[in-house]
Amino acid sequence: MTLDELSRSPGRASEAVLYDEVGDDPEARASLLETMRSRIDEMRDSIRRGLASSEPSRTGMVGWNAKQLHEAPDPLGAPLLKRVQEYAMAVNEENARMGRIVAAPTAGSAGTVPGALLGVADHLGIPDDELVMPLVLAAGVAQVISKSMFIAGATGGCQAEIGSSAAMAAAAVTELLGGSARASVHAAAQALMNTIGLVCDPVGGYVEVPCVSRNAFYAVHAVSAAQLALAGVESFIPPDEVIYAMASVGRMLPPELRETGEGGVADTPTGRRVALKMAGK
Predict the structure, then answer these.
(1) Which residues of 91-109 are buried (b: 16+ CB within 10 A; e: fewer)?
(2) Pick the CATH number of 3-278 from 1.20.1550, 1.20.120, 1.10.4100, 1.10.357
(3) d(Cα 163, Cα 182) in Å, to the nearest integer?
(4) In tens digits, what is the pLDDT along the chain, a chain of 281 residues?
(5) Nearest Cα to Cα of residue 211 among 99, 101, 88
(6) Confidence (pTM)
């Protein structure tokens, strides 16, 4: 299935993804849905642990940011924005502390989907049972993207990781809020299109800086894409063509900008100093 095909589904996009995966097999359907329920529980647990801890990661670069944001005042009076950001950061700081997280689709981009999906749900008081099918859709979007580009910063830059997670989250949030299959797919396309060219530049090679804050930014980005799609705003470029464009750019990125720690913020004086320190030099 492609995104364009998914957008033409007569019902919810998640139902089309589920049918494509398990067909009419009721046992396989029940098993997959139970797996997704467990993933939501695991996402919740990583958020809870992340918001409660200020323990630094081994490098000392991150570990307290989510809790700090969680306990800080809300000067903008925008509780949804703040919640989405702190949830996303909580998950990625748990990853940096080697805690249990759900790679969605990777460890480095693990905070975007729970940040956006669970953040919106909690803001609106939507129970977790209603998040299962949107999470199925998120997985389906990732599966489609992965057919054109490996979802890894080492292969296609951060656009392949955080771009994919933002697309997943945007589609899931759109469906959660009642969007059609077409709206969900176009939300994913817009979220992905606006990450094209994003490099992977982890300081010292650790998935911490800028990864933790990047998840916070792109969780909000995903919610913005959902809001546009729910208003009827669509991607001018067809969704599948957006994926091909991202994949093409990923193949053109030089190795220095693909998770090697040799470009971007990793190649700043501070970034190089951290890398030498962690290498014991």
Answers:
(1) bbbbbbbebebbebbbbbb
(2) 1.10.4100
(3) 19
(4) 999 999 999 999 999 999 999 999 999 999 999 999 999 999 999 999 999 999 999 899 999 999 999 999 999 999 999 999 999 999 999 999 999 999 999 999 999 999 999 999 999 999 999 999 999 999 999 999 999 999 999 999 999 999 999 999 999 999 999 999 999 999 999 999 999 999 999 999 999 999 999 999 999 999 999 999 999 999 999 999 999 999 999 999 999 999 999 999 999 999 999 999 988 87
(5) 88
(6) 0.97
